Amino acid sequence: MRNAPILQLLAIFVRFILISIIALLIMLIVRQWNQGIPMIMDPTNLSPCAGEEMQFIAYNQKKETARGKNFSCGLLSYLDRWKISHDFTYKFERIDAESVAIVMYSSSNHFYEARRAIRSVRFVFKNKIIFYDLGLLPNEISELNNVCNLELRKFEFERYPDFVSYIMGYNFKPIIMAEVFSELESFWVVDTSVRFFNVTPFLTDFYANITSGVIETMAMRHPSSHSIYATTHPSMYEYLPIDYPLAKELEMLDANTMFITRSDMTREAIKWNALCALTPECMAPEGSGVHCWFEKDRYLTHANCHRFDQSSINIIVASLLERDGWKRRDRVKDDSMRNFTSVQRGDGDGIPLIIPCE
What we know:
Pfam families: DUF1647. By secondary structure, the protein is an alpha/beta fold.
């Protein structure tokens, strides 16, 4: 009986330890829930979404620096449809220049620019044009049917959440990229303001630089003269984080001219961009606007504006290149695309399109 007090004290101590462990576990669960970090119940399953990673990871010099909020598991069906989930792998081999498609899109208010864009493409390419109708008039659709080797596609807004229908949110662009990626090995995605010219020999050199690894497989090269940080809404970083010093250092590249060819890196970029486009708080946070107020320094200060899909794809590609050890680009600009493309906003005409096959 003399040992009874000792046993009672020992029992109290054990209960205290157990309660402390339970309390600590609860605190960790609450912390992870609040930060959007998935609970890892199985070390072989790093995501609550059927094993698919749904948190974008920021990298700086090959090191993980931050994780974004979880994208909804309800978006998994889109990833499978577009063949960009982790179940699909792609190895870059080569670019078949003759099979590269040119992907364009327009609503009626930009069709006058689209006429010039299509003529510039047909002046230098015989390659297939895939043109997405974002709201064209019947006579404009008739004109496109007069263009040789042009496939007209009506963008199916009804297949996506209602907010995608708001064109000024630019959600449609990453979706178009994902749709085409599921079908084609290599393609250009260009706005109606883009003009092609003088493609020989510069375009051949451009493709060769991708094949040799000098240029990445998802390439943008038109500089914007400001940083990623300057024109990105801060709330986008909740889903797509990036180190602020890196965002202030890196030049934002225009998303009006992109070359895309299949690789695992490209699949990841397309995936995260599409997930952001299907999440309104990511692509178009509340208060987003395109009109900027730049100060003298266009890199270190925020211009109170947002570049929507251009912001998202710049953040995503920058992080993937940091992860994979690519040499960081700086303000010494690589203008290789400007050897054969230009951007001419507002340049259009009213002459109907008639471009028959030869």
